[in-house]
Design goal:
The chain is mainly beta. It folds into two domains: 13-74 and 131-149, Chitinase A, domain 3 (Roll), CATH 3.10.50.40; 78-130 and 173-191, Chitinase A, domain 3 (Roll). 7% of the residues lie in helices and 33% in strands. Strands 1, 2, 3, 4 and 9 form a five-stranded antiparallel beta sheet that branches.
Length: 199
């Protein structure tokens, strides 16, 4: 391994990618001022519509890619909007429209939610991804390619020394980590989140 440097984006190749993401003509995420993202091509580490369009690209090559909702974060799901009793929220969280929260379900998965409405004794939460139902426009540049290690191939993702999870393009900032009890909520698998939880 290491003798034959990959020349194009293909399955089992680690891709280093610079990107700018625009939604409705607004830049909402970019690696240009930080570092390129690294991921293992062909393993679903990034959204399918973007991954598909990268095949065959060479280092230094740039491209504009439009990703429709079905190939990005999906369409909005009305069932992902639920009401939770206001009493279930810690008192130190200022409940207001637009506030982003994080919580865990019984499987330990971190869920993101946005407060849509605070109405009387209930808080309406939206668990849809913020980019669900949106068309995404990416300007990308392939920075570098390398062979994946055997361990990376076995695990299905890049080992960078950081987190071992799929890459998500960000949209906004989580202002609070919501600690929501599971008792008496409409979402029956919510549990309190750890203070350091994040995606």
């Amino acid at each position: 391994m290491g003798e034959n440097k990959p020349m194009i984006v293909a399955d089992n190749v680690v891709v280093s990618l610079d990107y700018t993401l625009m939604v409705d003509n607004q830049v909402i995420d970019s690696s240009r001022d930080t570092e390129p993202i690294e991921f293992l091509q062909g393993y679903g580490n990034i959204i399918p519509g973007l991954e598909r369009e990268l095949y065959g690209m060479k280092p230094g090559e740039s491209k504009s890619i439009e990703v429709l909702p079905k190939d990005g974060y999906g369409e909005r799901d009305p069932e992902a909007v639920i009401d939770i009793p206001r009493i279930e929220f810690p008192e130190d969280i200022p409940l207001q429209e637009g506030l982003e929260l994080q919580m865990q379900n019984v499987d330990g998965d971190v869920l993101n939610a946005v407060i849509l409405e605070v109405n009387g004794d209930n808080v309406k939460l939206d668990f849809n991804h913020p980019l669900a139902g949106r068309s995404l426009l990416f300007d990308v540049t392939v920075v570098a390619l390398r062979e994946a290690t055997q361990e990376e191939l076995e695990h299905g993702h890049v080992h960078s020394g950081d987190e071992d999870e799929e890459f998500e393009f960000s949209y906004g900032e989580e202002e609070f980590l919501g600690d929501i009890d599971e008792d008496e909520t409409d979402e029956d698998d919510l549990l309190p989140s750890s203070p350091n939880g994040s995606l």
